[in-house]
Amino acid sequence: MAKLSTTTRAALRENFPHLARDVKSFPVREGEEPWTLHEVEELAAFLLEDSERLERELAVADQELSDLLRNSGDGAGDDQADYGSSALEREQELTLVNNMRDLLAQTAHAVDRIRKGTYATCEITGLPIGKARLQAFPRATLSVEAKAREERR
């Protein structure tokens, strides 16, 4: 486990003032050890840092998309291949921006769940999500079973 910097610890205290108390209520699956404060602090720090990174990247991607849309007719000429290539590039950039927005929203939701003390609880079943799942994917809101049921629909 990595040691958290003083700056990171200060950010955690500011964003999650009741984390030491709330971590005791985070559920675990049968056979798992209870959450430790350090484990949740690491996940929370990752989510906060990732949120900042995504916001920076989204700002750049939004600007690139705006430039691409603004200049979409420049230099294309009358060639259909040029139009198609430009359309494909715009579509790829738009997909990237939308995926980034979705990831940022998932990250914000996970941070909010930690803040509210509801982290680690499946939003459908109310059962524990599982430490291993959250450590692998800290944005998870569903248990493996609930996610599998959702994907089968």
Query: Which shape, going by the Cα principal axes?
Result: flat
Question: What structural class is derived from the secondary structure elements?
Answer: mainly alpha
Low-confidence stretches: none
Strand percent estimate? under 5%
Mean pLDDT: 89
Distance between the termini: 38 Å
Order of helices and strands: HHHHHH
State the total count of DSSP E strands: 0
The major beta sheet can be summarized as:
none
Count of DSSP H/I helices:
6
Percent helix among the residues? Answer: 55-70%
Rg calc: 20 Å
Structure description:
InterPro entries: DnaK_N (IPR037187), Znf_DskA_TraR (IPR000962), Znf_DskA_TraR_CS (IPR020458). Keywords: Coiled coil, Metal-binding, Zinc, Zinc-finger. It comes from Isoptericola peretonis. This is TraR/DksA C4-type zinc finger protein. This protein is mainly alpha-helical. Helix content is 65%, strand content 0%. Helix 3 runs antiparallel to helix 4. The longest helix is centred in the middle third of the chain and has 37 residues. The chain starts with 5 loop residues before the first helix and ends with a helix.
